[in-house]
Each structure stands twice: as C-alpha cells, then as structure tokens.
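Incident log, structure service

09:12 report received: a user says their structure output differs between two submissions of the same chain.
09:20 pulled the input from the user's history:
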Amino acid sequence: MSLQENLGITIKALRAEKGISQEKLALSTGIDRRYMSDIENGRRNISLEIIEKLAAFFEINISKLFQRIEQIDSFDKNKHKK
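09:34 re-ran on a clean worker, output below:
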C-alpha cells in the first residue's frame, strides 16, 4: 500500500479509538468533510499543516503518528511475504 493509503488507515483507526465521526473530526480540525473522507480513503497527498492538525487533535506527536503508519506498512509487507 502507498503512504497515502497507510495514513488514511491510521487516521481512521485513531478516529475509531476516540469514538468520533468523520464529520466531528473534520469540524474539530477545520478540515473540509469531503477532504477528510479523501484522506481516510488514501486519495489525498496531504500537507504538513494538515498532518500537524491531525496529530494535535489526537494528542500525539508527529513522530508517533508516523510510527503508527509504519506499523501498518510493516504488517502489510509481512502479510504479502507469506
């Protein structure tokens, strides 16, 4: 999977952990709801500013956010090796 897709999976998982809707996440971060949908579906190559907003909302630093993205990438690569 691409970095964009892995980022979307990560954002969707973080949102689910918080138990909030995509719309609430979009409103809380000042990101358009349709744009948020595109992010979660891996269709957007987002800016550092958006990454910063999302990390702040989830109360994690950017490096932790990317660690989670890398975990998905590692899982996906290991899954395809079998």
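09:41 both user submissions now match this output. Likely a transient worker issue. Closing.
09:42 reviewer note: The mean pLDDT is 92. Residues 13 and 19 are 10 Å apart (CA to CA).
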